[in-house]
Amino acid sequence: MQQDNVIEVRNVKKKFKVYFDKGSSLKEKILFQNRNRYEDRWVLNGITFSVKKGEAIGLIGKNGCGKSTTLKLITRIMYPNEGEIEIKGRVSSLLELGAGFHPDMSGRENIYTNASIFGLTRKEIDMRMHDIVTFSELEDFLDNPVRTYSSGMYMRLAFSVAINVDADVLLIDEILAVGDVSFQAKCFEKLKEIKANGTTIVIVSHSMGQIEQICDRAIWLEDGLIKEEGIPKFVGEHYLATMENQRLEKKEEEYQKIFKEKKLEEINNIEVSEFESKLNDDEEEAEIKIEKKKKILLPAFCNSRAVRSGNRIVEFTEVQMLNSKGKETMVFSTGEQMLIKMQYVCHQIGTSCNFTIGITRDDGVYCYGSSVLLDSKEVIIAKEIGEATITIEYNRLLPGKYFLDIGAQAEDYLPYDTICSVKEFQVTVPVINEFGILSIEHKWKVDGNAIKQKNS
Fold first, then answer.
1. Neighbour tally for 386: CB within 10 Å
2. Taking the CB of residue 308, how many other CB atoms lie within 10 A of it?
3. Which candidate, 255, 277, 256, 258, places its Cα nearest to that of 266?
4. Domain count of the chain?
5. Which of these, 8, 63, 132, 272, has the minimum number of CB atoms within 10 Å of its CB?
6. Is residue 365 exposed (0-12), middle (13-18) or buried (19+ Cβ within 10 Å)?
């Protein structure tokens, strides 16, 4: 181990046996041996990192990526299948709520038990007892069984013991998420203090605010490997952007599935309506009912929260949002081309029409609007069946959720067909380096030196 390092993790791999249907008794294991089938699941596939004295690092990543397993390996609760882990000094850990506590023992008795596990003698515990109790703020409950404690009280007691054992290395796994706001703030202040005194900290958290507040370095684990390591703010931004993109990809798949189902359902509803109407009414009444049914039903191309109005002299029959590859999607990137296609039918020959679009953020902020009339200063004569498109060459919207509004209207703005929130779409960006509504081209200079933008 290098002299400055306190923790060294070298090419560590860890696997677990995952049983499909494991027998729980000796009888079941003998009679039903086929139930003992299992598969090897590799949680860590060869990670390597080191931590220096007084350094704080944060482990981030989605559930199941190996963060908690890494901490347990460092504490030697479990051992790697391959690779080596070296640690200098006394280790204190907060891995699971209530770990190291006996529910039938009082808070005071559990302090002695838990602190002794960390290697303190009874005399050393007696010297620290006042500090532990005072920090936990549990003076009135100290002699009660810990089974009567809330999860927050458990956390208070466990954290108070862990930070008062004079550990060289402190390992924390998500436990701080349990406490109330004021105690969390107190804990973070204490962590900064013990870090300044030379204690090495390794923390697992899904809160990037916590990681940025405490840690000097962040390690992003994915599929059992280190995907990225560096300054917490930048690593965190990349991680959150990736997680958001994955979420949106799943949402896009669901959208495509719902879109197809809704289209089929609409066709079936109209067919059934036509059949029932023609059975029970004369032809003229049936046609009237069918038209009413069509007006009430939102067409398949509409978002579920869409609101439609107008006299339908010009009526939209299809709306699509396409990306730069010509694929219909609901996820766009800042800077990407957007194409909006609106197909329509006109029920009165020679009708003049103005087509409009608007974009609104999900918090109600109106972000953009455009129309044929504003651009050309004149309206067009609608065809019997036609299509209006608008190409946004460079999407300047910053990341967020947005809604598209479309309209077909007369020159005096009488609405033929207006659909608010016809489409919901998301905007993402690989790296967040601007805030607000729109991306604006800019260049920074400091002391005459140009600052180069980094997009990765």
1. 16
2. 20
3. 258
4. 3
5. 63
6. exposed
What pTM, to 2 d.p., does this model score? Answer: 0.60
Do 67 and 39 reside in the same domain of the chain?
yes
Q: Do 259 and 165 belong to one domain?
A: no
- Do residue 264 and residue 204 come from a single domain? no
314 and 224 co-located in one domain: no
Asked whether residue 80 falls in the same domain as residue 219, the answer is yes
Give the separation between CA 441 and CA 428, rounded to whole angstroms: 17
* Token pair 């046609």 in the structure block, residue: 287
125's enclosing H/E stretch is helix 122-136
Burial of residue 169 (number of CB atoms within 10 Å: 0-12, 13-18, 19+) = buried
Q: What is the dihedral of CA 326, 328, 332, 333, to 10 degrees?
A: -20
Range of the domain at 354: 302-456
Q: What are the structure tokens assigned to 36, written together? A: 């003992």
**Integer-rounded Cα radius of gyration of the chain:** 31
Beta bridge partners, 321, equal: 340
Domain end call among 262, 297, 332 = 297
pLDDT tens sequence for the chain (456 residues): 788 889 999 999 999 887 766 656 666 666 666 666 778 889 999 999 999 998 999 999 988 888 989 999 998 888 999 999 999 888 888 776 666 788 889 989 989 988 888 888 899 899 989 999 998 888 889 899 988 988 888 888 888 888 888 888 988 887 666 567 788 888 888 888 888 888 999 998 888 888 888 889 999 999 889 998 998 888 888 888 788 777 777 776 776 676 666 656 655 555 555 545 544 555 556 555 544 444 446 788 888 888 888 889 999 999 999 988 888 888 888 888 999 999 999 998 889 999 999 999 988 889 999 999 988 888 889 999 999 999 999 999 988 889 999 999 988 888 999 999 999 998 888 777 777 888 888 888 898 888 887 665
Q: Could you tell me the CATH number of the domain that includes residue 149? A: 3.40.50.300
What would the two tokens of residue 294 be?
A: 């069509």
Q: In three state form, how does the secondary structure of 9-48 look?
A: EEEEEEEEEEECCCCCCHHHHHHCHHHHCEEEEEEEEEEE
